[in-house]
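Retro notes - structure team

What went well: the batch runner handled both jobs without manual restarts.
What didn't: labels got mixed up in the shared folder, which is why I'm recording both outputs here explicitly, each with its sequence directly above its tokens.

Job 1
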Amino acid sequence: MFSTLTDQLTREEIVAAYTEMLGADRVITDEQVLKENSVDRYYKVENIFGVYSLPLPAAVLKPASTEDVAKILSFANEHIINVVPKTGGSATEGGLETVIENSIVVDGSAMNRIIDINTEDMLATVQCGVGLEQLENELREIGYTTGHSPQSKPLAQFGGLVATRSIGQFSTLYGGIEDMVVGVETVFPNGEVCRIKNVPRRAAGPDIRHLVIGNEGALNYITEVTVKIFRYYPENNKFYGYLLNDIKSGLQILREVVTQGYRPSVARLYDKEDGLYHFKHFSDGRCVLIFVAEGPERIAQATGAAIEEIVSSFDGVERVDGALIEDWFNHLNWDVSKIEEERIEIRETLVNGFTTEISGNWSVIGDIYENALKRIRAEIPAQFTMLGGHSSHSYLNGTNMYFVYYYKVDVDPTEERTTYHDPIQNIIVEETLKLGGSMCHHHGVGKHRTHFLAEEYGSSLYMLETLKSAFDPKSIMNRGTIFPLKK
């Protein structure tokens, strides 16, 4: 299906060619930079201890324009050089790993211009390297918002947000990134630049935006994004918190709120373990249910009143002060300082934490949660300091589940993944697929769930593989991501 890499240039030839093309200042070969760009957060334990076991890229390239990206990809396609697209670098599933010798990392973070904010058409257009928080701050100053707020908000940039089909904490109201993207500009491996125009809707064939959204750098390189913007009414926000005895009741409440047609911006449910981790100052070992109602005053009031009415119809539910929930949200996002704090903590305590997110219909999500945790406890010989989960993105027909696990790393750092992380994630995915759920809700496939791709897609795998063959016949785009690496 794919071409081999036997005709690939030497490392020195790759660096020389791109230096001539872009200039020496935009071709980075410093060894530490190469090490840091060979992995993402999936390998965090190894790199915290200074271990980099994957092939180092030949260079990190810093394009300044769409034209630069087109030239970079065309040359890579001609000489069969593996390309790993990157912007903010907050990926968690191995999508940024350089698993092929002499790969190039194309870092679009220098393409960081906010091109236009159009409050009449309710659109914002940005280059791929614009930070989400950067745009959000500018919008809020004039009374608007993107509505997009993942925990990685201080770090994430728009190219990566779109490429990984990201979602934010306010998704029940605003949707995921796929609901926000109006148009995009992207470059394919042969250097072809394609622009999808900004219109509210069209029925002129398939929605080709979805050849770009969620491609994880395995089909094309996103250079520009246009997203919807929304009016911002922070003064109307209403925060609700409740304590429950079991997660089953919480799932029933979530379902009732959403299926009755209400759209709180936040609808989150934490089991006892995860609740104790986040809310130990008030959870008292019980499950925690959170809602936020926002928007125009009358909509926020109506949504809040409905939440209170629905929750009151369930037994054994205790209301907590909404100010506790508001304070927690104000400190939830991860920035550079929090990542450094985590690195220090892991070095000192040897306790490591990860998450695996899946989705399922209402009829099966509770069973997926229970079955996966039961198997993990029975099969993984780890010293867990926390093993639980929470739901944070709900829909008319179902919800997601974040499995959260912290454990003592009592093996060599190079064995952490194969001893703990991979087996735990495999169990979660296996139990999800058994009951018809999806193996990944918003972190993407990356390079560590590809062995489940055929089971995830079933007969529709033909469509996905045909896209790869058509748009990237030489397989130069992020080999091993989404599509299993052929050995």
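Job 2
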Amino acid sequence: MPDERIPGKLIGAIVAVGSLAFIGILTETVMTVLFPQLMREFNVDTATVQWITTIYLLVVAATMPLSSYLNRRFKYRTLFLAAVALAVLGSLIMIVGHAFPVILIARVIQGMGSGVATPLMINIILEQSPKSKVGRLMGVGSLVITVAPAIGPTVGGAVSSILPWRAIFVIVIPIILLVSLPVGLKCVEQHRPTEEARLNSLQFVSIVLALCGLVMFLNQAGVAVSAAVSGGSATVSAVFAVVSLIVGLGALLFFGWSSKRSFSPLIRLGWLRDPMVLLHLIAYMLLPIVGIGFGYVITNVAQLSLGTSAFLSGALVLPGALIGAFFAPVGGMLYDRFGPVRPILGAFFAAICGPILLLVFSMRLTPVTLAGFYFIFGFGYSLGFSNIMTNALRNIAPQFMPDGNAVFNTCLQFGGAAGTALFSTILSVAQAGAGEEGGATFRHATAVGGSWTFATMIGIVAIAICCLIAAFRIGAKRNSRL
């Protein structure tokens, strides 16, 4: 029998590298709950302020395609130190920045750090874990990351009630330097040799253009619709949206075409010919639209419709996100024991009940029901989400795992960026022409926007469930032939 014990250094490496992603997601969710305050401080509207979150997620998504190249070219410890440096630099700029564009630059730098750290953690787990423990360790990796959305809104609300919001970044720097850095230097190990991989710059530029174009399309389409609803001019935004869509789709098609013909592609995509893996990937991209976007929706509906404080709106996210985060390793253990079908589908059939209940009670919500229904979603989502990538990557050849990891993590972050842009657009459209923030008409309009958002969430989760069911049917047919 092989030694199936989990090495202590592996756990330390997961915590050290994952904590950097934790810091990035924590600050992202902290900023989300502060959107109303930031809108007043920087004199920007809802569609503009959401770029603090969207640009972070977009940069993370744009950095992750490099992870396959970085994983082959550089040692893990070098990548870890680069992620630490980027996280600290971004936090320092957030502390001293007093203009909205400077804040966005800081988020770009922090996004690059998280874009290096997250796939690095996944690669360490996949390469260094005992085979019988992969599911639970992927759950632990998910726990490291998903605890951040659980406590982020509460931290943001609590800190902003007693300190300036920049104090959050003063706090995280010592955590990075005194906890993440020393643990990582001691525990991050190299188990495979590096290669003389080459960076395909043209393909990298094309995938960045694709991601930026598609997210800009969502954002500008929303601005155009919002302007049209409120009686303003939507021509410029509409043209920009169409151009962004053309650029995004064109760049994505070029990336796929050039990858097939390149001797050294940025990401090897041949494994996507497997329809079962492709269906897993589609579900893995769709679900973060809801999972990450929920933090924005809950906190803003609570403040702008129900009239709660920033602290209370952040606290509403805590129960569902925290219980879901700590159940992620449980989902991994269920996967290791029962396989993929029941743990994954059961989790998401439970999760979809949350937005269904939110839609049914959307015009009669209270802070308690808002938190309770989100609790249902958060529990199911975290129980099953990390198992989707685990199951997909187990069905591709080991030499393509870095490529699969890069694609799955890129789609996760793109889904999150798209979700924030999509849901902020829906709320902006509903709020258009509804008067000043705080008025009865504005609160009602926000509640209506919330109901539209919850209906959209139901549709997205339902499509993801259908993709997973189709994938499992393909897998079952393959197994029956063996």
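One thing worth noting from job 2: The chain has a mean pLDDT of 84.
We'll revisit the folder naming next retro.
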